Amino acid sequence: MDKVRIGVIGIGGMGSSHAKRIAEGQIPRCELAAVCDLDPSRFSAFPGVKAYEDSAELIRSGDVDAVIVATPHYGHTTIGIDALEQGLHVLVEKPISVHKADAERLIAAHTDEKQVFAAMFNQRTDPHYRKLKALIESGDLGKIQRTNWIITTWFRTESYYRSGGWRATWEGEGGGVLLNQCPHNLDLFQWLCGMPTSVRALGAIGKYHDIEVEDDITALLEYENGATGVFVTTTGEAPGTNRLEIIGDQGRVVCEGGKLSFTRNETPTSEYCANSPERFGKPEVWNCDIPVKGNGEQHLGILKNYVAAILDGVPLVAPAAEGIRSVELANAMLYAAMTGTTVQLPMDSAVFEKHLKTLIAESTFVKKTDDATDTSLKNSF
Ligand SMILES: NC(=O)c1ccc[n+]([C@@H]2O[C@H](COP(=O)([O-])OP(=O)(O)OC[C@H]3O[C@@H](n4cnc5c(N)ncnc54)[C@H](O)[C@@H]3O)[C@@H](O)[C@H]2O)c1
Asked: 10 Å Cβ neighbour count for 114?
């Protein structure tokens, strides 16, 4: 194969953006061979491209070698499994699944290593995070003591939540800010700092919006090496803050406002603490602004990497199997907040799945949408 025939399943906001990039030739060595959506009115944006209303038909059509799944969240698991079982390469939008048990099922369907199975974690292409990862891995920050991410720049209006019937219900979306906006941050958080071993959290359901899912979370994390962390997010705050601060034995690195700053201790904190005769002293520091240009190729970079992985076998920037970690973190934070308990990780995926099914079964929430004919409501649990 020297050209990958790609089918995009779900051509709403995100899927149509991916499909347009492919149709416009922004990604070498691939073509937009087919699109699929429950809503056929979307097909006119892709004249001349084969169109399907049923993903199962597209997957079995023989028209495509690879798919991109950009439907609402529950479809990532069901459609992803179907495409993997039919031998296609799969790129799935974030989150890879709504809950950990579904992520396990999805990952288990990837049995052939010749099949490329990727996730759209576009922020992994951002040089701020790539440099931060290199810094941590180089050991220059020392053993991590504390992590702190305040990511409250995800402000959303009521109009946003009304824009899709699937949004902000347990049955349609499966969660709120943790599952829709934060998969990127949760993925980066674990990519940079590893998975915590326990999570506790405070949170609120529909605190700022007429929704039945969470829109405000403050989580406390504990890591195996004794480090602690805080993760704060909401869709109800403006202007919002995006500040990632990681403290290690050899200093502090802060990613904020497009800048990556490393304040490096001349002497590791633990060594200074043990050996300094000063009662109130602290290590001398060097301030280093780490040069970073731009925000990387983002979605385009992941799409190019997907095609290159299929044709040339290059390593994936974001293998889908790693997507289970951000799903688990989102599930754990939500469960901890809703039950007032501390969740030990790895968490029991069956417990969370049961919790979510109960929320769906007991829901009395009446979803408001701007479009009474919205077909995305069909995409239920
Ligand atoms: N990576 C990113 O930066 C990013 C940004 C936005 C959205 N997303 C993700 O993309 C996905 C879609 O979000 P969106 O904002 O485009 O939503 P959207 O509502 O605009 O689009 C979803 C589309 O999927 C269609 N659809 C629903 N069920 C389907 C099915 N079973 N088969 C085929 N089509 C189906 C709907 O009709 C709709 O056109 C979500 O998972 C979301 O989290 C990712």
From this structure: 8
CATH code of the domain made up of 4-123+298-319: 3.40.50.720
> What does CATH list as the number for 124-295+326-362?
3.30.360.10
Q: Which residues pair with 248 in a beta bridge?
A: 144, 251
Does residue 9 have its Cβ closer than 6 Å to ligand 1?
yes
Q: What residue type is assigned to position 194 of the chain?
A: G
Give the model's pLDDT for residue 261.
Answer: 98
d(CA 333, CA 228): 15
Regarding the beta carbon of 56 and ligand 1, being less than 6 Å apart is answered: no
Angle between helices 127-138 and 183-193 (to 10 degrees): 20
Q: Give the pLDDT of residue 381.
A: 29
Q: Is the CB of 10 under 6 A from ligand 1?
A: yes
Query: Is the minimum distance from the CB of 42 to ligand 1 under 6 angstroms?
Result: yes
Residue given tokens 């301030």 in the structure block: 287
- Is-above-0.90 flag for pTM? yes
Distance from residue 9's CA to the centre of ligand 1 (Å): 9
Opening angle at CA 106, ends 103 and 112, nearest 5: 135
CA 166 to ligand 1: nearest atom: 19
How far is it, in rounded angstroms, from Cα 337 to Cα 328? Answer: 14
Q: How far is the CA of 70 from the centre of ligand 1 (A)?
A: 5
Q: Is the dihedral of CA 334, 253, 346, 305 positive or negative?
A: positive
| pLDDT tops 70 at residue 332 | yes
Calculate the dihedral angle through the C-alpha atoms of 160, 166, 171, 173, rounding to the nearest 10 degrees: -60
Q: Where along the chain do its domains lie? A: 4-123+298-319, 124-295+326-362
